[in-house]
Design goal:
This protein has 437 residues and is of the alpha/beta class. It has 16 helices and 14 strands. A hairpin with a 2-residue loop joins strand 13 (402-407) and strand 14 (410-413).
């Protein structure tokens, strides 16, 4: 007797199944980055993403909570959304003491926030907020703002109980032994974003060397503290090759004109910094990547948790595509393909406290699955929405292997989602007079 008589049976012989992907660092995007939230959600689902950790709630906590609720009720076509609001959002001015920090955390927790994302904050307030978040069992993430990193680097916050270190900020400084501040160019201004990004690569070249005492003791303490690393390698790869990210193959069909305009060099758009980005900026970043990747891989090998996060919507990174690119970069960092799958599934579920519900294929867990026509362990490129390029009998073809994304047992046809996105992009180009562009 069939246990679930109303269940739909799918014949998936010859296919591959993996857990739904958890993107540990996303932003839904605003009207200057996307024509609609639908555009973003369908790109995520089309790439197998069933859960996203929205770090920032930059459209406002109320909007993100509403979208999270609608997604949990399966009222919209969207991944599961976990709102992590920016520290201090909605507060009248910066939070400068422990009491105000605790009150603010309790307030957003009462409204339903899943956690808090920090940039930089007054140290007393920062530590108190983290302590309260941990008392409440809520998530926390930090992009360590470089203005504050002399006072508060990644090791400082890990000791305070931070759950995840986002990007790379604060890591080189945690290994400083022959200096206390970054060696920045004379005249450096943090408010000059191209200069700020250009300083990042050289910063990695100022810190400890792989295998040194400082390197090893830092890694060992991070691992012992239980902090997670969400490196988002993909969002910065334009720093080592700007031409590559400008000319990614998927832009024509999948990047909406609003997003493309946001990407183009402009002081008004965060991360749009490649107006005068040359060889002298790229070479240090190529060297830095080797060191940064070595550090993250060593951390993983010590038992540290590493997740896959994309941070798309900035620096020529299109939603959905950025996460697959992140998987490729974890491979470049030295991760085994199975370790990459774990980073993109169970590790993200563990970080967000959802590992009893999602992150692996087990009896009793939610039906969050990705069905593929090819094995991604052999070639991660088959997961891209525009497909992996093949030549068959002299003819170029593309095969997008993700066929279905299943969230909460609801089956989404990935090919249909990709078609929806392409139609949205074509319509938006038509409205802007760029049809066929």
């Amino acid at each position: 007797m069939q246990r679930y008589p109303d269940a739909e049976i799918m014949d998936l012989r010859g296919h591959f199944v993996m857990p739904g992907l958890v993107d540990s660092h996303v932003h839904i995007g605003n009207r200057s980055q996307a024509p609609s939230a639908e555009y973003v959600y369908k790109l995520w689902l089309a790439h197998g993403v069933t859960t996203v950790r929205e770090v920032g709630c930059l459209n406002g906590l109320d909007f993100t909570l509403s979208e999270a609720q609608r997604s949990s009720e399966d009222a919209i076509t969207a991944p599961r959304i976990l709102p992590n609001v920016v520290f201090g959002q909605g507060h009248d001015g910066p939070i400068m003491n422990a009491a105000d920090a605790v009150d603010w955390v309790r307030g957003v927790a009462g409204r339903g926030a899943a956690g808090v994302k920090f940039f930089g904050a007054q140290p007393e307030a920062f530590e108190a907020a983290l302590r309260e978040l941990n008392e409440l069992g809520l998530d926390s993430a930090c992009h360590h703002e470089q203005k504050r990193v002399r006072q508060v680097n990644a090791m400082t916050t890990a000791r305070w109980g931070l759950r995840s270190i986002e990007h790379w900020y604060g890591l080189p400084e945690a290994m400083f032994r022959d200096r206390t501040v970054q060696n920045l160019p004379v005249g450096y201004s943090y408010s000059d974003e191209p200069a700020r990004y250009a300083s990042g690569g050289p910063l990695w070249l100022q810190t400890a060397e792989p295998g040194s005492a400082a390197w090893e003791e830092t890694l060992e303490e991070f691992a012992a503290l239980g902090v997670t690393m969400s490196p988002t390698f993909n969002i910065y790869i334009g720093h080592r090759d700007a031409a590559r990210v400008r000319n990614s193959e998927w832009h024509e069909e999948f990047t909406a004109p609003q997003l493309w305009d946001f990407f183009e060099p402009s002081p008004e758009s965060h991360g749009s910094v490649y107006g005068d980005w040359g060889t002298e900026q790229e070479i240090p970043w190529r060297q830095a990547y080797a060191k940064w990747m070595h550090f993250v891989n060593d951390f993983k090998n010590l038992g540290g948790r590493v997740t896959a996060g994309s941070d798309s919507g900035f620096i020529y990174k299109t939603f959905g595509f950025g996460l697959v690119e992140e998987l490729e970069l974890l491979r470049e960092a030295g991760f085994h393909p199975l370790e990459i799958v774990r980073a993109a599934t169970l590790a993200g579920a563990e970080l967000t406290g959802l590992d009893r519900e999602i992150g692996s294929i087990e009896v009793g867990k939610r039906a969050d699955l990705v069905v593929l026509s090819e094995n991604p362990l052999e070639n991660l490129k088959v997961m891209y929405g525009h497909g992996a390029l093949r030549y068959v009998d002299g003819t170029a073809t593309r095969e997008a292997a993700i066929k279905y994304t299943i969230k909460n047992g609801i089956v989404f046809d990935a090919e249909q989602l990709r078609g929806d996105v392409k139609r949205i992009v074509a319509e938006e180009k038509g409205k802007s007079g760029r049809a066929g562009a």
